[in-house]
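Bench notes, afternoon.
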Amino acid sequence: MTQDIHERARALLSDQQSLGSAEQAWLREHLRSCGQCREYSEGIEQLMRALRSVPLAAKPSLVRLTQAKVRMRATELRRRRERVWLVIVSCAFVSLFAAGSTAFLWRGFEWLGRWAQVPDAVWQVGFAMFWIAPTIAAGFLLLAQGTHLAERNGSARG
């Protein structure tokens, strides 16, 4: 049982950043009463101070390369965010336009079907095709563009 308490104290000492208040209170109390764990804690503190005192310097070329990559990534993320915002605004505009114009378009197809004296099913299928055709065309265009970009990027890397 005593060994389990010491193991728990050492585990808590190794991860002090994420301790809750109850665990911190238990650890403080245990360190007051246990010399062995107190020495272990002091050893960890000495080791951490020693590690912090060691100077760490990177080569200037590594620093420049890292800064350039960070800037490139920030630019990429900014462009992606702008593209996503453009897509969101476009989708909202298209949705509002579709919601507002669908009733008028339905009435127009109904009138055209009666004027041409075609069965209701024919002009309704015509309406559905007319209504969905832009979505299908846009899907094919985006697919073609994505395939083109993937081929271009693949040949640039290869």
